């Protein structure tokens, strides 16, 4: 069914409301409603016309209501919350095209048993909406390339995402963030009136303006156009004195507003207005301090108010400085990613739906170009062009802001933008650029470093996408606590994280994380809870709502959604046994576990995400665990890129724990890290250098395991091996 356009009169007077409603015929429910208000008889925006039947035309062509994102109307006027509530979380861009093999893999995983047709690109499957009878079997024809489908019986049709939602039904709603779990609140830290005045304060700080001009080449005219402002925000630091008040912790910040279109029912002068939907604030002095207001609401885009209604092109950059630089030099509307990292939330996609051409201009390094390709897939590869700032000059600038300071012509760089190449077709130039990016950025190839456990980085070299890590250890030894800390550590570095806790409730897990994040027991200082909760809300941390036994296909569907909607890069499954418990017969246990491991291994590779999976060990009489101690067949350790064992040894001084790296596919470095637990913060830390070297000698050879596992009193007296790893 086509999109319907209705003319109604919800208000008194001569005001008309054009209501656009998109119906999901495949699901039988409407997704959301958007409106565009005009005065009857008043002048329409340039290029727009209204027919007697209520149709809207732009330059003589009927326009799609999905080209705009508007709030719902109410007689009470503008409501700030409607900026982010108007978009359903189920709404995907119509430009999305599934990757090769994605359609067939999904159909097989959900037991749809597709049948071949005379056309190699089309398969026949059962219609989930038709009543089950012989004449309706295999009535849907689905295109394996783009996922579009049509039922020949009930005439249901739609996009690939529509079909996925028909089959999975509720899996979309199984991913939640910290705000939905009750941590913090989605409200503004400042009043809307104060936020609107931030931009007026900028000219009172000439030193800030001078810094923009001297360091980045951004003029005052550009700053005013983007409504850059000045404000103060609270900065409570970890382990700070509890006597520090919110007023004493105020920081002077530069504010970058996220703008979104809105309509005010009481406004009789202007047709379309923009409101500040969210603020991103950088501290003027402390460059590490970045905050958002409100903390967890993803609404609006930086500089979106500068985009004319008739404009069909926009440039998407990585940060505000690049966006202002590009707009200043090219006069093409430019915006940036809404969060502090390579994330493009699903709530933002409707704002980009109106554009037929999107330039993606991120850092010209390994992480930036990987993110650019991912966003091109998400937004639709047919309308996206990727900008390489270096332009094959490997000594060139890495981003737009640097290019301006080096005197480069940004229009020339933009003209060399290229579309995303087909995944299965590469030429030498593609490989040459990608390989050289890895050569000149060895740190990014190694992955994200751990700030809490630098010794772990020395062994594993970093946290890399596309890998599967198996984490095991005795029951009650602290596996979840350590993984909670590590995931939080990487998340603070910008790694979007999804937690699947199948053993302990999400509330308990979030409480543990919040304590680790604050670095103190908040139950002893509850007055600081909201301060830390507001900071925690800003992290790209998400949680699966599943608990206990859950079908693997259901979990993978939710993971797929999290990757598309939240650009998740790290997934933790805690743990394998709880997730697949009570599934299959006792004799099928090993086969089920092997299939599960294979599915997650394939998922990590195909989606280029890091999966960390907790697997319980076997009941073993030996105190020190080995690769063979992992519960299940050898396939688990074979499929894994990394195997980490949490060793727990009883000694005269009490329990001693070690993170023992038994497998490292990246470069083969192995070793063990002695750790100690800090009860007040629920965190671990590695011990001094001497003990670090001592334990690496001990763990260097399997024979020492066998010789000293039965007598822990003698393990320190063994002759040390010469093999060690570098330590700090």
From TrEMBL:
InterPro entries: DNA_helicase_DnaB-like_C, P-loop_NTPase, TOPRIM_DnaG/twinkle, Twinkle-like
Pfam families: AAA_25
UniProt GO molecular function: 5'-3' DNA helicase activity; ATP binding; hydrolase activity; single-stranded DNA binding
Domain SF4 helicase positions: 442-691
Alphabetic keyword roster: Hydrolase
Annotated GO biological process: DNA replication
PROSITE patterns, per the entry: SF4_HELICASE (PS51199)
UniProt keyword Membrane present: no
Name recorded for this polypeptide: P-loop containing nucleoside triphosphate hydrolase protein
Record lineage: Eukaryota, Fungi, Fungi incertae sedis, Mucoromycota, Glomeromycotina
